[in-house]
Design brief:
mainly alpha; 2 domains
Length: about 240
């Protein structure tokens, strides 16, 4: 993987640093396909909106192809790929966001990406069921994002009905989609503060939601000014969760 290196530095007592050595990243990820690692290392801020969506699809397609290959039948190889994906988890956050706000097609690829993120060990039949359930929730949330005068109660009723049919392994994915709905849609912004208190307490999800909000807030705070409202909302919701936790 020529041209991609990790630099190691040493610090002296006088506060200066010397570069000791540079190591190719393949030395740290020897069992991961270099093309996938390169894709993860792309900076989202360097990609236009349409290009970012296509890059997400590209990552999903590469992962799916790798998982299907014979070499991925080894659980250790599967773990290596999944662990790499977890290390670059901001791509899962972006997949959830794009599922709810993008007009582009290929939602199945992004759903598959999220399913793999939350349960890489799904067998084919179980993964198909997880995909079906997640698609149902995603479509429901998209409909709610276009509903005039949406109330927090409307979303609570919808979420309760959807989550009651979910397999235990897919509930984390469902929470991820719901939080993305609150942070990245206008209707979500309007009801987020009222909704989050009831939802987090009712479902016992304070810790999980707090972690997700912190991660997303950190990611979008480094992006364009249009995300300032999202960052503020995420931080406000974190304060609410601290008070109920």
């Amino acid at each position: 993987m020529s041209g991609v290196y990790l630099f190691i530095f040493s610090e002296h007592g006088n506060g200066t640093t010397d570069q000791l050595r540079k190591f190719p990243l393949k030395a740290y990820f020897p069992h991961n396909p270099h093309s996938l690692l390169r894709a993860f290392l792309r900076q989202p801020s360097d990609l236009p909106a349409a290009g970012l969506h296509q890059h997400l699809i590209h990552i999903a397609e590469m992962l799916k192809a790798i998982v299907k290959t014979n070499c991925m039948r080894s659980s250790s190889n599967l773990f290596d790929i999944w662990f790499l994906f977890i290390h670059f988890g901001e791509w899962a956050d972006m997949a959830a966001e794009h599922l709810l706000v993008s007009e582009a097609e290929s939602s199945d690829a992004l759903l598959w990406l999220l399913v793999f993120y939350y349960d890489p060990n799904d067998e084919n039949q179980q993964r198909s069921q997880t995909m079906l359930e997640s698609r149902s929730l995603c479509e429901h949330l998209i409909t709610l994002s276009r509903t005039p005068a949406l109330s927090a109660r409307d979303l609570l009723v919808a979420v309760n009905g959807e989550l009651s049919r979910k397999q235990p392994a897919t509930k984390e994915l469902a929470v991820h989609l719901i939080i993305s709905f609150l942070l990245f849609t206008a209707n979500g912004h309007a009801i987020a503060r009222e909704f989050i208190t009831h939802f987090a307490v009712t479902y016992g999800e304070v810790s999980r939601i707090s972690s997700l909000l912190s991660r997303i807030a950190h990611r979008v705070s480094q992006l364009e000014v249009k995300y300032q409202r999202t960052v503020k909302l995420a931080n406000d919701l974190l304060q609410i969760l601290k008070s109920v936790g």
